[in-house]
Amino acid sequence: MAEPKVALVVNRTLPPQMERAAHDAIVALEDRGVRVDTSETLAGARNADLILVMGGDGTILRGAELGRSTGVPILGINYGHMGFLSEAQPDELPAVVERIAARDWVISERMTIDVHVQRPDGSCNVQWALNEVSVEKAFNSRLIEASIGVDGREISAFKADAVLLSTPTGSTAYNFSAGGPVVWPSVEALLLTPVAAHALFTRPLVVSPYSTLEVRVLRDEAMVSCDSRRRLVAPEGTVITAVRGERPVKLARLNETPFSGRLVARFHLPVRGWREREVRE
Fold it and tell me: Is the pLDDT of residue 14 over 80?
């Protein structure tokens, strides 16, 4: 069997802690016969066994761009704040290295979302997101005025700060902050969540993964942001359609903690009453 290969993606700001950790990870992996590519390119990731991401959720989203294109799974070590997509904490690095050297992980596929931005001048852009596509007001702009639809039928129109088109993975990101529902990653669905909308019907929608979500920009200019990494201009008259992504993103998992456990840990949810009940029982 060929020696394992890891493509390393790190936080580009490289604070001293991050720089030392990245160096230690490279040395430890190479000592165990693992080849490490630090180019952060598609060519470097294409024949890797794993993409090791050291940083916060933003860095993991950057690693996801390589993972989606190559089909290589991503394993994140959290050096950020929330770290919802991460699998381990910095103090677990030695154990992570051992697991990588042994090729000991399982794969969790995460649904993505594909988006088409069709402008009135006939131009069209195609993009994707792991968390969400946000149709939001442009810089120094007023609220966007938009209509929303599902499967070719208009449902409502309103003014809002933004309209979010999310995946279950993204339900704990911007969607969560906007009051949208938390959807377990194993559930295949698409979410539409208005943000601070001025209308009577502004409830979040959860629809089939085979549905098509639609947002029409009715007035002024909007911006389409994909995972807060790729931005597109959407002038008045633009139609944004979103469907289930053709390519998933693979996350490498090292433990079998259920999503409910990750939810409690990441959001520091108060579960003392539940634990006390378990002790009494």
Answer: no
pLDDT of residue 171: 96
Number of domains into which the chain is organized: 2
78 marked as binding residue: no
The domain in which residue 50 lies consists of 5-110+248-267
- Identify the weakest region by mean pLDDT among 35-44, 86-95, 199-208, 272-281: 272-281
Burial track 26-44 (b if 16+ CB lie within 10 A, e otherwise): bebbeeeebebbeebeeeb
Based on the fold, state whether residues 135 and 56 are members of the same structural domain.
Answer: no
Q: Is 67 annotated as a binding residue?
A: no
Percent of the chain with pLDDT over 90: 77
Asked if 162 and 76 sit in the same domain, the reply is no
CA angle at 221 for the pair 115 and 213, rounded to the nearest 5°: 30
Catalytic residues: 57
What pLDDT score was predicted for residue 277? 53
Tell whether 172 is in a known binding site: yes
Sheet holding 124-129, edge to edge: 124-129, 113-118, 239-244, 213-219, 144-150, 153-160
pTM (global) more than 0.70: yes
Q: Give the span between the Cα atoms of 217 and 240, in whole angstroms.
A: 8
Q: What is the pLDDT of residues 144-195, one digit of tens each?
A: 999 999 999 999 999 999 999 999 999 999 999 999 999 999 999 999 999 9
The answer to whether 58 is a known ligand-binding residue is yes
79 and 98 assigned to the same domain: yes
Look at phi and psi of residue 34 and say left if phi exceeds 0, alpha if psi is from -120 to 50, else beta: beta
For the domain that residue 180 is a member of, what is the CATH number?
Answer: 2.60.200.30
